[in-house]
Amino acid sequence: MSEIRHFDAGGQTIRIRKNLSVPMRDGVTLAADAYEADVDKPRPALVALSPYGKELQALALTTPPQRRPSPLWDGCIEAGDIARIVSEDYVHVIGDLRGSGDSEGEHIGNYNAGGVSLGQDAYDFIEWVAEQPWCDGNVGMVGISYFGSMQVLAAAERPPHLKAIFVSGGHYDFYETTYHGGIMWFMPRAAREGRGGDSGWAFTDGVKSRMIEEFSPEELKVKVEERLADPDIQAWPNLVHALNYPKNHEAWFDIVMNQFDGEWYEERNPNELAHNIDIPVWLQLDQGRGWTLDSTIEVFDRVKGPKKLTIGAYPPMQSRPFIEEHDKMFAWYDYWLKGIDNGIMDEPQVDVFVEGSRETITADQWPPKEIDHRELYLRPRHKLSTEPETMGVEYAAPDGFYQAPLTVTDEVQILSWSTPVFEEATEMIGTGAAHIFAEIDQPDTNFILRLWDYAPNGSRQLITTGYLKASHRELDEERTTHGNPYHPHTRAVPVEPGVVEEYVIRLYPFAASFQPGHKLTVELSNAEPLVDDHNSLLPPDAFHLPVGRPVAHKIYRDAEHPSRLVLPFTRG
């Protein structure tokens, strides 16, 4: 039963319409709460949709925002600043997706792939909100991460009353949500199941596995045994458990079982649907979340209506409850939902914060400046140079490291190479690549690269990262360009031990200016440090699946094997 409550927020009385029933076209009813000023009048509405539970989102009224590494940071409180939204004279409508919270229905697979389209539900939800007497018929959306992805899914369905969206921190390529360069990433499991500082999904009857529905028990048993044969899986207890007991972790089971990109991920990928969007779109993301920045830029390039792109500064994780970027959001919605001519469309389409110089660059395209991809070569004595090595391998012997699996060691081996200190400010903005000539003694390994800006006092700032599972080294030659490699990740090709291979690793988009006296350092490993000054900014589960077997690596960087970085230097 719906009811009306009131809440005092610093002298502002907020009227809360609790447990509204929102009908879907198939007869399922979704539950929602609506927050508005306690004065009767129709207003524009900002809709937030997720499976994290509307009651959790209500904590935005009572819990002060937390930043990492606060132990109170909860990654699932993402629907926005309720009191601020109400004070700006909008109705904030927070809904539970089907099968979650107080809503009816069931959820099948990741993002309901295989079940009722979440975009379809969002369409019906938005149109219902627009018809209510407390809404003036103008609807936008709000929220980050899952809430952000829902905005793109909704806009692609083109509900008539959705006039604009403002997406902060969304993710749009569902394969890259969990596999970075083919290497499994654990953080999405935390968001789903409630681990490492996340409350997790609020599904009332779990999430139904598509794999269990699509395959017979005999077929599924064979597929599970094949996946369990992966040494990396064997060495990680949580994954052994998930594969042996899929009913306990059905959504995660499906993702672990699908380690390659393709139809399973793409059928409702927001980035694949973005070309259907012709309403105004503003996309915002902070640096440090490279996999998301990649697909954010892809969506920006594909949408057809008025658009903006904002790339912000570190750290990579916003407050929870989420409160950032609201100034830009209200300027956007005041223009598109309220018709206030505030000059927002007179500003350039793109604004990018540059680490190092701490300047904001504006333009009408990404990258915001013309760039030249230039090489920095790995050289002996851990140096990076603009000049390639002239000596052969017999004189420029390879660097190397041996990594024991984390089942038997806590020590992660890291190789590094550094430039001389920069004599003048040197700016790089865009996507890069690393060409690593390597020989390993196993059929597979991980290549993990991290680029750092080191200050004269020894402090450092992470600039960008790159990941590649060696068996996923295959390139799409048609889509790959200099400094911008593309891996299809549709199959694994085992490495022949003892053979030197060239691995082209994508470096996620970044914007940095190396100041005089600073130096650039690249680190290479096959696992991540268990603790360091960057990881402390992330939730505890934000790491990648380590290699489950011992691997010896030889990194060649001689005249015949020009291991190098290819980086986006700006012109002028």
Automatic annotation (TrEMBL):
Q: Which InterPro entries match?
A: AB_hydrolase_fold (IPR029058), CocE/Ser_esterase (IPR005674), Galactose-bd-like_sf (IPR008979), Xaa-Pro-like_dom (IPR000383), Xaa-Pro_dipept_C (IPR013736), Xaa-Pro_dipeptidyl-ppase/CocE (IPR050585)
Spell out the coiled coil positions from the record: none
Q: Which UniProt keywords apply?
A: Hydrolase
Q: Which SMART domains match?
A: PepX_C (SM00939)
Q: Name one GO molecular function term.
A: dipeptidyl-peptidase activity
* Record has Transmembrane as a keyword: no
What Pfam families does the database record attribute to this sequence?
Answer: Peptidase_S15, PepX_C
Xaa-Pro dipeptidyl-peptidase C-terminal domain location is 330-566
Query: What's the protein called, per UniProt?
Result: CocE/NonD family hydrolase
